[in-house]
Specification:
Largest interface: A-B, 29 and 44 residues
Number of strands of chain B: 11
Number of strands of chain A: 16
Distance between the termini of chain B: 19 Å
Distance between the termini of chain A: 79 Å
CATH superfamily of one domain in chain B: Amidase signature (AS) domain
Strand order of the largest sheet of chain A: 2-6-7-10-1-11-12-13-14
Order of helices and strands of chain B: HHEHEHEHEHEEHEHEHHHHEHHEEH
Number of domains of chain A: 3
Oligomer: heterodimer
Shape of chain A: elongated
Largest sheet of chain B: 11 strands, mixed
CATH class of one domain in chain B: Alpha Beta
Helix content of chain B: 25-40%
Strand content of chain A: 15-25%
Radius of gyration of chain B: 21 Å
Strand order of the largest sheet of chain B: 1-3-2-4-6-5-10-11-9-7-8
Structural class of chain B: alpha/beta
Amino acid sequence: MRYEAVIGLEIHVQIDTQTKTFCRCSTAYGDQANSHTCPVCLGLPGALPVLNEEALRRAVIAGVALGCEVSGFSVFARKNYFYPDLPKSYQISQYELPLNVRGAVAIRDEHLHDKRIGITRAHLEEDAGKLMHDEDPRGPSYIDFNRCGVPLLEIVTEPDMRTSEEAYRFLTAVKEIMQYTGVSACSMEKGELRVDVNVSLREHGALELGVKQEIKNMNSFTNVKKAIDYEIIRQTHILRKGGVLSQETRLFDQGKNVTITMRTKEEAHDYRYFPDPDLVPVELDENFIQSMRETIPELPEKKRKRFVAQYGITLYDAETLCASAKLADYFEEAVQGYSQPKKIANWILSEFLKVLNEKNLEADQSPVTPLMLRELFTSMDGGEISGKIAKDVFNTMCSTGKTARSIIDEQGLRQVTDQESIEAVIDEVLSENQTVVLDVKGGKGKAYGFLVGQVMKKTEGRANPRLVNDLLRKRIERG
Amino acid sequence: MKLNEYTLEELRALLRKKEIKTRDIVKDIYAAVVDDSRNAFPLNAYISFDQEKIDLEEQHLQERISNIEETLLSGVPVAIKDIINVKGTFTTCASRILKEYRSPYDATAISFLRNHGGIPAGKLNMDEFAMGSTNESSAFGAVRNPHNREKIPGGSSGGAASAVAGNCAIAALCSDTGGSIRQPASMCGVFGIKPTYGRVSRYGLVAYASSFDQIGPITKTVKDAAILLQAVSGIDERDSTSARVEVPRFEESVGKSIRGMHVGVPEEYFGQGLDDEVRAQVEKGIKVLEDGGAHVKKISLAHTKYAIASYYLIATAEASSNLARFDGIRYGTRFIKTDDINELYRENRSLGFGDEVKRRILLGTFALSSGYYDAYYLKAQKARTLIRKEFEDAFAEVELIVSPVAPSAAWDIGEMVDDPLRMYLSDVYTAPINLAGLPAASVHCGKTQEGMPVGIQLIAHHFHEDTIFRAARVVEGAAS
């Protein structure tokens, strides 16, 4: 029997704000434990939450960018459960009336078909603190509340994905949207994007959903993929043997690449959600929602398609360029008024990205500005330097921040296009390599290349290669 | 006469004339508290009273405010129910679980109090986490009624009402969730007002039921309450439910005529269960208003019968969540040492909370549980909406509604400890007001034959505390 996997995701994205969701503590990452805390985020008796409007604004922007309807009326609810990293013993979240509902994000599936993944809801909530356990299992545990109260957007999808690859692509798309809109940097190392996965299997063609297994709290897309693949195999084995699955919450063990039971349905929490009486409902008018809509830049999906049409590059290249808004902007600025954007695209995708990766920089932090890159290309097109020299010049630009022109001038790299001086060098090379000349005449093509190389070497690569080629050929033919 | 026997208004005048200093008042209060503690049946109104610290607080305030005499409160000491955070003091909520807990910050009401020249002076006994109507659920022992020390003072602000009535405090700042200011004020023969929900910031008031809780004063006179309420009212950015409304000069309402005021008497508040003596005293109070020129008429509030059930479902639901933070992990008492997290939660909370608190947490947890939420919590919210609407309609016709505060005068200590349901029912006239978020006061209007005080409840429309102050002064004048 063949089974089909049905996959839905719950994604927690940290919303970039200066201060926490319900108090004025800083959201700075990596500072001394508990240095960003106050009575509110520590849940001290009597403290009350007040909503950070910037967090709300960004959550609305995220909602619009995810194609959601933004609710004019939404309500914060308390999710009640006991855990030491949760100082109030409830998390302020949204339940019955979330901020954003009914959205969709487009991806390309493995057959390169467009596919829309439905978003059920995207709501605003607060993060919990962080537990740290002593290496000695009998030793103490510590709690850092710096992260406690940091704003999160919880994005819940429809069970629209069928393969781990689709899930991977969807996550990539969401991450790009969050980065484009400035809602979140989605730094995976800082845990700014965490994923819960729901996977169930059903017979191919069946309409009813199978019993779902939830895998919690993964902070790498690769792990999400591995966890889904593992679950599909595990569940297939059970079902093939005639076994029955019961609803479970599981964890991914990234050392062993397996999922393990965290709790069964019997142990599931009853969160006793109810509207938080400490907060008033969020009421947004259409003007506000519209003004947020207007702040949204062109999103990756649209940009990719435009790049293909406008610049004649491949969809694959457009995807790489548009993976980061900064890189896409860099590209567009560099090709402005330039007639061969594809050439610059190729350069960015090879040479430029290599340097960015090496130096761990964003496109806008590069010492080579888009204008400087375009100048390098005009120098190449005008025959001032060869493509080979251009690579060296570019590397020097990257390390010094100087323009192509000044590097060419300083290092005397301008191509030698003066016929007489090249001919003089050719004569010198021929007289020094008479046996090779004989080989050439005997029909050895390789030997000819050697002579060209010698001329280039003597001119320190500055001779125009085409000119060298022409002159050398004529000279040898003349005998 | 000792200074602890004066009213706030009188002491303010003396302070303004520089005839006395705050520390003179504090000294006399302290002497009275110490003296009372030697009584075979002490009032037990305070959980903590640190004279040295209060003097120091005064000194600090003198340094911060140059002419403290010119402020609204001029340096009068005000006792604080032990559920309101005062920086540096113990805030125990009369619970074992917070027995050693010291507040690291001031409640907004306390900041406002200080800004107006008030000195927080002593933390008052109460029912544990303000859950109770008798002040018997305190982990620090029951409070006695100064009018008869074998009787309860009412609750949950029993310590406040007892201290003010027994001249162990000039005035007190308390909280009212379902009657916790008005009922003890009535039983101890003092004045107490629960302002409109949102009038006083709740920031720093330890939450029992967030959508009901309000801070308000218990005082010797109506005028004192007007002064104190004005000091602590106002907009607070730290409380999302704080009302964005101006604070009127309440003091100026006290003494204004009530001629032509339309007063409603809801028949549902005078039905079965109301003690005859209480009824007689309240009717006497209504007569006083009529004599003062008010137009009194009967009205109906038919949904009153749903109030107690709704109140005890919503309030306990909120409480079950509000009190979840008391786990002994980050602060408060930790009763055991264990490496099992569930055992730690279980033991801390089992040993930390008293019976009444546990009962309400269990009730509220049940009301919110999946499968029961719609039938209990949601239905109670619907009833709440109806009750609120009914009051709205009534206030289209009248400016003031009057009723008893409690079905009976103070009863004997121990009488109801094994009958929580009967105790809950005694909130029948006060809890509906909190459901609707209205302002209401208890003003003393007479005594039973046994000599126990009886108050009359005056209820006004949202943010019309001034109406209450006007009427309350008239009743007060007739009773004295």
